[in-house]
Amino acid sequence: MERLSQAFSMFIVFQFVTLAAGVCAILLTTSGLYVVFLFGQVIAMIVFSIITSNLLEKELRRKYPEVKPDRHISIGTGSIRFGVDWRGPLKARAGRSQDQLAEEVFRKQEIIWLLMIVTMVVLCALASAVY
Predict the structure, then answer these.
(1) Strands, E, within the chain: which ranges?
(2) Single pTM value for the model
């Protein structure tokens, strides 16, 4: 769990570096180099999120074996979907157990999504203002 927390911290630093590099690319070049930073960060975010979410879920399911997932059925036009949510119950259980490390990892997970959205908005707004 400590390694996951460190990985999230390093990824947060990566996001700030990517944001700074994108801003520099917009201000110092006339090319669309910032798009490389933007899409690179989005792709890295997706891959990182999939890997860390699975690791976090695996670790917490091992730590709290009594937690059961939330199951739901979605009925749409032409399809019926069955979904299973582990994140909500595991996050609630970690909160009840006063598991500071798990709560910190969940908080960092939310922060990296927020930073990605902020980076996308800042780079797109700055690019539209400059170009």
Answers:
(1) 70-76, 79-85
(2) 0.78
